[in-house]
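User: Study the fold:
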Amino acid sequence: IFLLSISDAREYFTTDAQRQCTATPYALANGSFKYEANGCTWWWLRIPGKDLTYAASVLTYGNVAAPGVYVNSDCNSVRPVMWLDMNT
């Protein structure tokens, strides 16, 4: 289980609309941000941002924020991914 990189997010979700993410009720109850205009949340990527106090993320409209969001922000969401080997 891991977080996507910037290039992963752009490869697997080819449009901003595909990268938009709605937080689960559990995430919202635990402080995830919900942008009222579209109901979406931000989510972390695994790449550092403009310095070590920021991490890249995907914003509420699905755009990738390479400079990042402050890592001590407690309102972003996590969108974990994992690889499955379907051949075994």
The longest helix spans residues 6-12. The chain has a mean pLDDT of 95. The longest strand covers residues 64-70. The beta strands are 43-48, 54-58, 64-70.
